[in-house]
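User: Could you check the structure of this?
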Amino acid sequence: MPDRWGRLTGDDFMSWANSINSIKNSYREHQKWKDYQEDRQEQQQFKDDVNYNAGLYEDDSLQYGDGTPYATRDDAVKSALRGSPQAKIEGTRYHLMRKKQKDQMAYDQVYKKIVEWHQANPKASLDDMPKDLYLGVQGHKARAAYLSDYAKQDEIQRGIRQAREKEIWEKEIPLFFARKAHASELLSSGDFDGAAKIIEDMSQKLSNPHSLKYDPKTKMFQKLYMASETGRPEIIEEISPQEVFKEVMDIRADTLRNFLLLNREAVRQHNEEKAKNPQIWKNRKGQTFLVTAFKNPGNANRVDYNIYDEANNHQVVHLRDDLYKMGLRPENLQREKLLLENKKSNAALIGKLQDNQLFPYREQQAQAALKGQQLQNETTGLKLKQLQNPQPKPLTIKEQEAAYERNTRAFAIQAKDLGVEIDQAIRNPT
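Assistant: Sure, the predicted structure tokens are below.
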């Protein structure tokens, strides 16, 4: 307000300053609201992209296989993903989380149905279980778990041991001692190679994943171990004939029986673990096949690759190569694991979204986008080249043999009811 002479006063200048500040504050509030709206739109778009990408994995309308640009379903999903790199990765993570929940529900439902079926049919053999009762991966896992739980009952354990004992005493022990006597006769007559061949043949007919192969050129035995990853025997070491002949001639019936019992239990445990974790294989049409590599209980020198299609139709082959000849390939799970390597950095981003801390979100989004882009570059570069022909990493022969030996020792500790000191019998086969 001017003074009495018409001059401006300090109050006038303060009023003008307040008016200017008010305009500036209004502009800042407007800009803040605008940023708020943009951030909300970006958040919503991110969430929409995540949900869309997660849904692609369950979209049956995707075209792939012969006559399309995409060889596999994974290729079709990858091409249809949208949004930022972290939205694509988070969509995959969300899909896997939902899949895990659905898998657990499916597993529980199948296990319950199997229990109800067995209670309603107590005299039925578990081998006669209706195949439509345990369809799919979770169905097979639930069936394997039920068979394992059922076999732990004392009465069932006694029945299993009695059946093993009967087969060993009636088949394997007579076979062993008949071949032993024949080999002894050939050695006495000087037919060294003939005796070695008899022992080689005998070792391949016993229920033992180790076997012997005689090389007449080097006059040495090769100790072999049946690899369940390939279905082929692998060389472990070479053994002199003198050592082999002495061990065969000195072994007694009770020692052999204990040794074979341990082998049968080790094979059972191996097959039980394989049944609980079937491998997923697919053909070019995307059809799913479940594969379990069992060692034959009566002949551990043979691997049975049990193949189940989506309707649980069953067939068996004995070499892993036969699976490839059928047009099957193992499912590529490595890629999904690779895409989840930045899970921790994404967790911070999702936390910001959930807490509605809007303005820090942009900085976090930029950082996550950079990390997501780096991951995408990495996965689409050198690492994915290694996945062009994805195959599960096979166990080495030493790892397989070590697992077999661990199972054997574990069973031996619990085998007091056999009535013999098994460990001592194995260490001193006389």
